[in-house]
């Protein structure tokens, strides 16, 4: 009955997020948000989280898209090797980084450049992006590029009209998923990150669990701010970017 229907999962997730947001709002006041915006530790945590999320997302999407473009033309089983990291949870990937990168001074865990966190996310998210985009690449109609060649279009314009307009939204969709996850994640930065500054997920968790009840409203305020940021990004993505890419795709394909 529910096979192929995304509404049950959507309603369940929306209910969980809505309930969590309601509880967080009930535990905070406007003073908590004003103090949060003037908290230098919180602002540094947001900056660090954005650095890690943007770096991980950009590299994962770029490498994953290139691999999908290459293996879309292959028929063997080699591409399935990239599925191996998907069977290892993020916490397990973090432990692998702790085990194999500890002796490397530049990219080892607990280094200020946070390369070990970024590499762990690359190990996990590149396969995700690859398998997310592989079916899209395999459905592309290469006759559009051939038509562009007949019309004398440049290589860049042939790629855009033949593939780019059809890849734009799936690539942005994959990027949004990876960015949202890495921005608010806890497990990997908690295990591999430094004690200061902490990524925002670790900072909020520590505030809530450190035993000082006076700090808990700040943790709830952080959860509200992060949820609001994610909601704004989702709204921009669904209301602005997706209609734009749909119009571009339909305009080129008709």
Automatic annotation (TrEMBL):
Residues 46-237 form the ABC transmembrane type-1 domain. InterPro entries: MetI-like (IPR000515), MetI-like_sf (IPR035906). The chain crosses the membrane at residues 7-30, 50-72, 79-102, 114-134, 165-186, 219-241. The keyword Transmembrane helix applies. Its main location: membrane. Keywords: Cell inner membrane, Cell membrane, Membrane, Transmembrane, Transmembrane helix, Transport. Gene3D superfamilies: MetI-like. It comes from the Bacteria. This is ABC transporter permease. It comes from Exiguobacterium antarcticum. The lineage of its organism: Bacteria, Bacillati, Bacillota, Bacilli, Bacillales.
């Amino acid at each position: 009955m529910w096979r192929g229907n995304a509404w049950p999962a959507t309603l369940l997730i929306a209910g969980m997020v809505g309930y969590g947001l309601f509880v967080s709002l009930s535990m905070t006041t406007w003073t908590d948000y004003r103090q949060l915006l003037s908290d230098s530790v919180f602002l540094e945590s947001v900056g660090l989280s954005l650095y890690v999320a943007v770096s991980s997302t950009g590299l994962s999407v770029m490498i994953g898209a290139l691999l999908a473009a290459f293996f879309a033309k292959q028929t063997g089983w080699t591409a399935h090797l990239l599925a191996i990291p998907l069977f290892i949870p993020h916490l397990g990937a973090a432990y692998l980084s702790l085990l194999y990168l500890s002796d490397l001074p530049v990219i080892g865990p607990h280094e200020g450049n946070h390369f070990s966190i970024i590499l762990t996310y690359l190990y996990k998210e590149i396969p995700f992006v690859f398998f997310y985009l592989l079916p899209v690449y395999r459905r592309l109609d290469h006759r559009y590029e051939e038509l562009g060649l007949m019309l004398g279009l440049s290589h860049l314009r042939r790629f855009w009209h033949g593939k780019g307009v059809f890849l734009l939204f799936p690539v942005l969709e994959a990027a949004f998923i990876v960015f949202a996850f890495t921005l608010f994640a806890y497990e990997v930065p908690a295990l591999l990150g430094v004690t200061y500054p902490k990524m925002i997920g670790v900072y909020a968790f520590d505030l809530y669990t450190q035993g000082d009840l006076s700090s808990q409203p700040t943790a709830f305020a952080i959860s509200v701010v992060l949820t609001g940021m994610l909601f704004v990004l989702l709204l921009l993505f669904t209301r602005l970017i997706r209609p734009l890419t749909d119009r571009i795709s339909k305009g080129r394909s008709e």
